[in-house]
Amino acid sequence: MKIETERLVITEFDLSMAEDVHKNSLDEDTRRFVPDEVFETVEEAKETIEFLMSCYETGEGPLVYPILIKGGANIGYVQLVPIEEGFEVGYHVAKKYTGQGYATEALLALIQFAKSEKNLDKIYGICVSDNVASKRVLEKCGFKKEYEGVGDYQGESMKIARYSLVF
C-alpha cells in the first residue's frame, strides 16, 4: 500500500523504520494519550513493526501505516483498527512535526483509502477528551461527535470523545 498526498507518503512499515518509530514514540503526548504506543527501546519498536507487518499479510488486526514526509523523515502513523462496530481510525504525529497539518492530511488520505479499498461506509474516531489536538483533527476531517463522557479507552475507564464519519 502506498498513498501520496501533496506533502506525504503513507506506506507499509519495514524493519528499517524501527529507530524512527522508537524516537517518535517518546514524546510527552504519546506518554500521556497513548502510553501503550511508547517504545522505550529500538528492539521494542522492531517487535511491534514485525507484528504490524504480519497484519498486512492477513488484512486483520490493526492496519498501521507510517507517515513519511516526501523525501524525508518518518513522522508518525495512521491506522485502521477493527472494533465491534466496524473500524476506528487512529493517528499520531511526533511532537516535532505537530501544528503543521500533517495529521489532518494523513487522516484525509486514510479516509479515502478506507472508502475505496476497504469498502467501508462508516468509521469511528475515539480519543481522550482532553486531547484537544486529536479532536480538532477529527473535526477537520468531517467526523461528528457522538458522545463525550466516561468510556473504555485502551482497556481503561476514562473520559473520552467518540466521533463517527459516514461516507
How would you characterize the overall build of this protein?
The protein is α+β, with helices and mostly antiparallel strands and 167 residues long. Helix content is 33%, strand content 35%. The chain has an eight-stranded mixed beta sheet with strand order 1-2-3-4-5-6-8-7, sandwiched between helices. Helix 1 (18-24) crosses helix 3 (42-58).
Question: What is the first-to-last residue Cα distance?
Answer: 21 Å
What is the count of distinct domains? 1
> In CATH, what is the homologous superfamily?
Gcn5-related N-acetyltransferase (GNAT)
> What is the CA-atom radius of gyration, in angstroms?
15 Å
Broad CATH class = Alpha Beta
Q: Which sequence of strands runs across the widest sheet?
A: 1-2-3-4-5-6-8-7
Low-confidence stretches at least 5 residues in length (pLDDT < 50)?
Answer: none
Described by strand count, sense and barrel closure, the largest sheet is:
8 strands, mixed
State the helicity in percent bands. Answer: 25-40%
Count of helical segments?
5
Judging by the overall fold, what is the CATH architecture?
3-Layer(aba) Sandwich
Mean pLDDT: 92
Mass-distribution shape:
globular
CATH fold call: Aminopeptidase
Quaternary state of the chains = single chain
DSSP, total strands: 8
* Structural class designation: alpha+beta
